[in-house]
Amino acid sequence: MTIDLNADVGESFGAWTLGADAELMPFLSSVNIACGFHAGDPSTILRTLELAAKADIAIGAHPGFPDLIGFGRRDIKLEPAQIYADVLYQIAALAGMAKTQGLPLHHVKAHGALYNQAAREISTARATAQAVKDFDAHLCFVGLPNSMLEQAAQEMGLRFIAEAFPERNYQGQHLAPRTHPAASIDDPSIAATRAVQMAQGRIETLEKQTLEIDVQTLCIHGDNPNAVAIAKAVRFALEQAGFQIKALI
Amino acid sequence: MTIDLNADVGESFGAWTLGADAELMPFLSSVNIACGFHAGDPSTILRTLELAAKADIAIGAHPGFPDLIGFGRRDIKLEPAQIYADVLYQIAALAGMAKTQGLPLHHVKAHGALYNQAAREISTARATAQAVKDFDAHLCFVGLPNSMLEQAAQEMGLRFIAEAFPERNYQGQHLAPRTHPAASIDDPSIAATRAVQMAQGRIETLEKQTLEIDVQTLCIHGDNPNAVAIAKAVRFALEQAGFQIKALI
Amino acid sequence: MTIDLNADVGESFGAWTLGADAELMPFLSSVNIACGFHAGDPSTILRTLELAAKADIAIGAHPGFPDLIGFGRRDIKLEPAQIYADVLYQIAALAGMAKTQGLPLHHVKAHGALYNQAAREISTARATAQAVKDFDAHLCFVGLPNSMLEQAAQEMGLRFIAEAFPERNYQGQHLAPRTHPAASIDDPSIAATRAVQMAQGRIETLEKQTLEIDVQTLCIHGDNPNAVAIAKAVRFALEQAGFQIKALI
Amino acid sequence: MTIDLNADVGESFGAWTLGADAELMPFLSSVNIACGFHAGDPSTILRTLELAAKADIAIGAHPGFPDLIGFGRRDIKLEPAQIYADVLYQIAALAGMAKTQGLPLHHVKAHGALYNQAAREISTARATAQAVKDFDAHLCFVGLPNSMLEQAAQEMGLRFIAEAFPERNYQGQHLAPRTHPAASIDDPSIAATRAVQMAQGRIETLEKQTLEIDVQTLCIHGDNPNAVAIAKAVRFALEQAGFQIKALI
What we know:
- The two termini of chain A are 14 Å apart.
- In chain A, strand 7 (170-171) and strand 8 (174-175) form a beta hairpin.
- Chain A has 8 helices and 12 strands.
- The longest helix of chain A has 21 residues, at 80-100.
- In chain A, 61% of the residues are buried.
- The model of chain A has no long low-confidence stretch (mean pLDDT 96).
- By secondary structure, chain A is an alpha/beta fold.
- The interface between A and B is medium-sized, with 24 and 24 residues.
């Protein structure tokens, strides 16, 4: 009974700070580090790697669309060849910087609109997964279960890590869109209860139906103002329920 | 009697093309590939790597200041820690992309204002050389002989490759600044004659004095409109003079 | 019998040159100047304004998506409020710079993916047209006839200038996509013949059908390698056919 | 007995928030709005203009170096012609956006490294002041008294507004550099006392000497975490001392 707890970190940029990475990391078992295209910059990456090393957790690359002003959350129509090159560049930059600190890259998780587009469109998913595979076929590939991300991982022979979101509501089979008034869950105790259900294989949707899932990681959004409290509550509840919080080996 | 012949390549960006990389590479033994900060982008890097693989020449990272609009040619006052992070990121991105094509990184050469600042200021040189060393202590480090770049390489135990510029004039001990009317030499035959002298250990300055030098590589500027003709003439003259054109192993 | 002849100019960026603006302008009666988001930069804008002043032709702002690496040719899903703000900023920057050279802004024409998206989607067209109107309700608004661009102009009470493309083929009612092998017409004499037909109210499509149109401007793509020869041939043919080449007053 | 109280605002960028503009503005009589080069973006500018309109205070353009990652605080060596173009573009963009909201541009104040460089170097000061003058010769030009900024304003015939910094310490005749441990003053009551002294014509330096000055505006740094408390205390103290807080007309 193990489960991974991940968050997106390293999302500051230059003079602008985002997220409470140092406070958040002690509750996590893995982090996805922004690579400089939608957020992050070389100095921020180094600082984030140091925090991750100190917290002794697994690190992943978190590549996004080249859209700083949109924080990688806006759909951009790129050719698959461009997605491949952009993702490969970002993974390489992050992995190479991590190597200098003795940290091996553990996984890749796409960010924002790239993640959503790759979950929907096989061409985007394949371009992303191919970049992961070409860089290092032993990397884990994190994504939405039953999505094109999972299909691409299977096609490439990449180890897939399915994720769920304890502080996001689900509608039908999917995440409720961010524009939905109940998209986010800010109450740490509700997020904690949902986290345990998810680790046990169930998600309750907004329509009060139960989805059966099989996920290996749970994601806390680092830019949620309650992120630290949520992570703390989620971790405590999971441990109480008998789960060990650790990254997949 | 061997000498390396290098040029800066991969300096296109998105829809904008710069340089005649495909025509130039067959005359070279190594290239310095822009890494996306002053020029280049992930798709351009991939294309450039393919050309280098086809030409079977050594590849190096060509990191620059984060100054796309200034093409990395404007002095920016960065903290050494930022220079270190920026250079490390760029080397890592390029080396990681090259690895997927089976190309090992051979060297690092700083670009433009970063090169000039590092030649002058030991703090910039050290930050740059430290990033090279931390990424891979076996990489060669290309730079101006008798400069802070050379000193930093020695301090770090990096293998230093001294370079000279056959199509640039020298003033006193240094390159004539680009603003000097005779800064550039556009005539391929003059460049070729100077290249042979340089390979033989001599540079004639604008003041008609002779500098004694010991250089292992000669650089052709890829953005010179005559670059291809110059490279061709230089290579032919060097071979006629008994030099073998090849990268240091 | 007058017709306007326009082209996109000012599309260089920093060290990268695109287009032959100085050679092209003498054949035109108006230009659309890139504003720094998909191409162009402040120094390029000033240089372009000087050329336009010398050629004594009408100037327009050519706002695009904030996508330098994609040259504004990739679809980005922006909120209408962001499109409004981005377009307003670009118009303001260009108009203010033009004012210092005594040049009044004549029109606005959206660029690339913004143009195409606004031609298709009324929300994008309205956000763009609203920015034009709020900046200066007397500006002309250039776009595809019978598109959402035209509808938005009518709703806002903006003067609409309908345009056709003599060096692009049409498929059905629309431009053949750039991916179509016959998308572009490189032969100046064919472009010239089509220009006269268009000025006279007809377009012959790839399916050999004739569209009836009513256009007030014809566009030559400045990044076409034949742009200057095409502009010259088109202008000559139009004048031979009795048209006066001038911007709408 | 009037004095202006200004702050730099609009320094957020995309998803990143900086400063507490809405809380700060009610205590000010003028603001300097970032124009998108070192901070700010079109949507942020619009939001900031709305706040300024609501607070009914004077607005100025706050142009900076094109250095988002460095927040415009790093020295960059630009040609004067580039500085001129960059500043003109930024003023034009901001003024044009303000015009659509019925807000006239009141002044221009350079940001960060551009401000400091222009205070020191007459060529930078002239390029900046020339852009102000060419855009609108009636604009006020804010800067350090007895600096090259003041000299350039005089040469151009621009109305100069001299400023002092109540929450910054002075060393000799100048601001103590940001690297000085006592560079900033975080205690609102000390800042308030200094503000009154400055409005009355005196600055006490770190060496306990008294500089005689004649300033018309006092600047509160909006990115100071105590900015709101400082602005409140400064305003109250100035009003208690008999000063009316208002922008120059």
